[in-house]
Write a structure and sequence with these properties.
9 strands; 2 helices; alpha+beta
Length: about 180
């Protein structure tokens, strides 16, 4: 009987430890997405801003979630921009761009990605250069994250262009207190 209790205890400890480890692996990388619109009225050679709220499939890092205090050193690991409507919109119509994240009230805006001197034949999908000079710990705990894309067009378009921004975010487990 004693062996049986000891065996069950060891199995339970291993199972509980592996669940935490799996959660850490699964939660370590998660995407934020936003749809940004370039209006047909935007002219070439001028600076514009497109603003949208970002969404994540995992809202557990917000104040109402259960993991906000369990992560630290949150940073961007990749940023991609893709045209979704029209799907064949050439991102080469954009000369350069910068992506900023902030709280919904636009306070504490942080540059997270950019791209300069975009080639005229870039196509409909582009990887951006990330900026990890600031951790995003406080931002991912906000109920809503505001994305602002500041851009300059090379060529104007005949119709509005809807672009999807995907920011892959990495988080490390917070140190135990």
């Amino acid at each position: 009987m004693r062996r049986s209790v000891l065996f069950i205890s060891v199995v339970l400890l291993l199972f509980m430890g592996s669940c935490g480890m799996m959660q850490s692996i699964v939660k370590s990388t998660f995407p934020y997405t936003a749809t940004l619109v370039i209006p047909a009225t935007a002219e070439a050679g001028k600076s514009y801003a497109a603003i949208s709220l970002a969404n994540s499939f995992d809202q557990n890092f917000s104040p109402g979630g259960n993991n906000g205090n369990n992560v630290s050193e949150v940073s961007i690991i990749s940023a991609k921009l893709k045209s979704i409507d029209p799907a064949d919109y050439n991102l080469g119509n954009i000369k350069n761009l910068k992506i900023y994240m902030s709280a919904e009230d636009s306070k504490d805006e942080i540059l997270v990605a950019s791209r300069r001197d975009i080639t005229p034949d870039a196509g409909n999908l582009m990887t951006l250069d990330i900026d990890n000079s600031t951790f995003l710990d406080k931002l991912v705990r906000q109920p809503s994250i505001r994305i602002k894309m500041v851009y300059e067009l090379r060529r104007r378009t005949d119709a509005d262009a809807n672009l999807q921004l995907v920011l892959s975010i990495n988080a490390y487990p917070a140190a135990k207190k």
